[in-house]
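Students often ask why we bother encoding 3D structure as a string. The short answer is that it lets us treat folding as translation between two languages. Here is a chain of 87 residues written in the first language.
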Amino acid sequence: MVIEMRWSDLGAVGVLHVPSSVTQLVAGTEYANVRTGERLALPIALGLSIILAGLSDSHVVLTGDKSAWKENWGTLLDVSNFPEISA
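And here it is in the second language, the structure alphabet:
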């Protein structure tokens, strides 16, 4: 799961990039309508990506504009420090 952080006129948003393997896995569930390219408020996109990653046993990777991340949410880590994820 990849969440691309962006700013919009509504504030910080997350653009979902859902792998086809995840889309296939959630077919027929309440998450079947989640699509790549969908823009959601960043906290909603983060929550949804964690649910989908948990269901599919995959990682969540954040990309995009780091300024959209609120500091009080914690520190963002650079994926290059985790070669098993970035590979």
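Translate back mentally: The longest strand covers residues 2-8. Keep this in mind for the problem set.
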